[in-house]
Amino acid sequence: MFYDHQQIEKKWQKYWEDNQTYKTSDKTDKPKFYVLDMFPYPSGAGLHVGHPLGYIASDIYARYKRHQGFNVLHPVGYDSFGLPAEQYAIQTGQHPAVTTEQNITRYEEQLRKIGFSFDWSREVRTSDASYYKWTQWIFIELFHSWYNKITDKAESIETLIQYFEEKGTEGLNANQNEELNFTAEEWKSASEIDKEDILLNYRLAYRAETTVNWCPALGTVLANDEIKDGKSERGGYPVFQKKMMQWSMRISAYSERLLQGLKTLDWPQPLKDSQEYWIGKSQGAQVKFEIENHDEIIEVFTTRPDTIFGATFMVLAPENPLVENITTPEQKAEVDSYIEETSKKTERDRMADVKNVSGAFTGSYAVNPFSGKKMPVYISDYVLMGYGTGAVMAVPAHDERDHHFAKKFNLEIIKVVETEEDIQEKSFDSKDSVCVNSDFLNGLNYKDAKSKIIAEIENRKIGHGTTNYRQRDAIFSRQRYWGEPVPVYYKDGMPYTLPKSALPLELPEVEKYLPTEDGDPPLGNSKTFAWDEAIEKVVATDLIDGKTVFHLELSTMPGWAGSSWYFLRYMDPNNDEVFAEKDLSDYWGQVDLYIGGSEHATGHLLYSRFWNMFLKDRGYINNDEPFQKLINQGMILGMSAFVYRVEGTNQYVSKNLAKDYQTQAIHVDVSLLKGTTDELDTEAFKSWRPDYADAEFILEDGKYVTGREVEKMSKSKYNVVNPDDICEEYGADGLRLYEMFLGPLEQSKPWNTQGLSGVYGFLKKFWNLYFNGEVFEVSDEEPTKAEYKVLHTLIKKVVYDIENFSFNTSVSSFMIAVNELQKLKCNKRNILEPLAVVISPYAPHICEELWSLMGNNESIEYKNFPVLDEKYLEEDEIEYPVSVNGKTKFKILLPAQLSAKEVEDLVLQNDKMEQILEGKTPKKVIVVPKKIVNIVI
Questions:
Q1: Cis peptide leading into residue 504 (ω within 30°)
Q2: Which of 588, 561, 623 is nearest to 119 (CA)?
Q3: CA angle 618, 621, 627 (to 5 degrees)
Q4: pLDDT (average), residues 608-622
Q5: Does the pLDDT at position 886 exceed 80?
Q6: Please, what is the average pLDDT of the chain?
Q7: β-pair partners for 890
Q8: Distance CA 710, CA 629 (A)
Q9: How far is Cα 197 from Cα 752, in angstroms, rounded to an integer?
Q10: DSSP codes of every residue in 574-630
């Protein structure tokens, strides 16, 4: 019977939509399972075949869990704020919302074609005001919270105000920007502006001057993960370090909890390692160094206070505020020039460049508090303002980078850790030796010396032992249009949040999407973006008077804001009163399975954990961690095609002749190849782009053969394969099976369209099991033991594979089972019905059709998954190899239920055995039941 995949797939996709087959119930009487894919950004290019890999895997698991009787939440939505739509708006004037809507329509069309079992009724978009209302609400909650180190959680700012009124800062243990000291009386007598300024020092969302990655061409601040090689990932524009007043999120308050929480998660170890490294916990001491002829002090954090006697110079971050104050007039020009150069590098570049050493001398000297020696103070880009205090005590004998620096600037190198190595030539970084040249530390090992020096530092009141984290607070402002407005207005220079009743603060219309002529962010172009405090409404900007009508914040939130909590909104997406009803968030709890790319390790996955922990602290949800199990899917790689242009000409030489010419390899679109061959359609190539219209070709055997190479699938490499084309030719079920069949989910693997014919052949074979020629024919006859064995062998394998995410081996098992049933000419209902259920998570359309043809009126989706019955896997007979003195002599077929003694007796009575024994009695007979018989004579 002809397998018409196009008609079948259209039919069932319409059925699922009309009947809302995958709509998730809010009833909490069944066990739940929450399966989620990482939030897709709807780009203009649409999906290529690499994108659905993770979605197919999560969809198989979601369907399997439904078959097991779980209430499955498997939603979809769009992370729809982002720079690409804004850049397009700047170029064309088209509102980003229009572009985004078009892109989402395209994405949704493609996703529906692949047959995903999403609950489309729960779709969310971060750019919808009904969604970002709650992103703004969370921001307001963060603004009105502080982190109490005593209780180790976030609390309402009201509890901090109450503390100040009773005790001032006495005994306060809070996360803060700087340590403040005041009494309760001083707090009470402070002005409102002063109080607000003090509270900004503690708020979890706060405004402060920060060094940021500024991209003038894009007119915005970029996160580290939006920059590559000193340029913006989007557009490749130069990025500079710049100081700006910015909103920040106090994620640093959660550093220890973020570290400890990793131990409770079933995540890939490399991903955990990335977060651990990013958070960067280290234990050591904070030490103060005086500066000659200055009142200022340099405070450093060091993990090796035991080496302080070997500290011979100091290095400050170029952006450290001390630099301006301590630089001498003679050194000012050199220092200013160096600061300017450093501003062109991102922090990530500065951290990565370990080979090159550079710096400038400030002209000032610090004093080593233990050796009493003068220490020249330098600036260098290898010291970062965001880590520790933005200053280091340099111990060149025992730190590789300090050693490079000392050699370059001819600075003193003193050995303070015992070693035979020549520390003038190479640093010795070990902790396994003892202290030397270190006064009262001499002879002590690392651990004892560290404890003793920290005690002495504290005794001299020049510092204290402490734990430090590399992780900085997250910058939360972007100077762009297409993002969530920050719900803040400014009165007397101080930020105040809008009342929650005024949310959402909607994005205003603007004439242009670039910064204003005064350099304000694009929202500054709006004529109606001011806050009237009296009537609690957004009003025209020309009404701003600083008395009742005030400026609103013109920055928008970063790309990660909306994606830091979207998994919670899916639990209750249409609620206008709360972001999620507490009983529903308690029921759905954590995401049980989260699938997405490893590139989000130190971005989205950290921010989501931070916001989740915060909402737990404030009592809105019940779980510390959002994602219990996480899988990073591998990449599907494209097979790129190249033509070879002879340098300086418009001639293109075929691959195998290219070695005879000086050529340049150029990517060409894989759609220009003939069928599934490597041969270029030269006429199509000439029509492809105007600059190729006059191309001349040097052919081999009358053909132009392209070069081929496996690379990342990308529009820029012209190696993209559109899933729509695959669904058209091989069906969505074919695409789903093939993507799983390619190899283990976590590994990267190359795409080869030719490979689809094997999977498509399997689907036709599977379809024809249910037909006799052109007639649908399924028998109610009882299956044979052999038929049951095929089915239950498959059930056992598929259950194991799905639960261990080994989807590729399941597809092989389907092929084996269908081949065996075909050989057995099986058409029995008791085999073919459960077979359709087992295969349906992978190939839902064909299975729905076959299920329906077997007389079932309801969808296959909620049919219980077949239960394994081990009795069908038991063998009736066992073929025992019989070995004598370690050599196999013959095999004997015996009933499986025989005892070891019965097996022994029958083997010894066997004619072949009697010939071997020649009347002798065996010394030993060993029977391994159902395996082997070993005889020693």
A1: yes
A2: 588
A3: 120
A4: 98
A5: yes
A6: 94
A7: 882
A8: 31
A9: 61
A10: T-SSSSS-HHHHHHH-SBSEEEE-GGGTTTHHHHHHHHHHHHHHTTS-S-S-SBSBE
